[in-house]
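Handout, section B. The chain below has 202 residues.
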Amino acid sequence: MTDLLEKTKTKNIGKPTTKNLENHETKKLGMSETRAKKIKHSYNVNDAENSLLLQTKYGDVIIEMMPEIAPKHVARIKELVRQGFYNGLKFHRVIEGFMAQCGCPRGDGTGGSGQKLKAEFNRQRHVRGTVSMARAMHPDSADSQFFICYADCPWLDGQYTVWGNVISGMEYVDMLKKGRGDSGMVEAPADEIIALSVIADL
């Protein structure tokens, strides 16, 4: 009899009132400080303030930034990340065996945030997993676009500002949809950055 009563109670429970609400209408649950620390620790980074979580549909990519060699670029990247600038932007140029480029709000490589950065060329080599700034012909034309190297690219050394390195998730970068031709421009629909976050903010 007790079992029947419990089943009846369960059957009569109504549907959650939040089921059909939009994301912005639902109240987000808070996270304890202890749990937040555990989540940050799970990414196994040396400096959470200077590490990024780049989410793709294939998996998470962890980037350690290098403020010691490119302080202004790292500061600007973090500023844009915290504004949500990169969320939803496409990997618009992806060349097999070379690199994957993103960070253009227009999705075609012609756009940026509107703030040019003075070059911080350094001795860091462009190897598999290197994260470096894209730019036009002028050395001080880097803005928001960056690329991740698929392989060693020594001809780029000293010509582009290296500011980070992928320490986890390169296998997911490998899965990004590749472009066609010498330009490597990706035909729609291109893969996108679902979200880019500073790990210290998680």
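Note. Confidence is low (pLDDT under 50) at residues 4-19, 21-31. Compare this with the example in section A.
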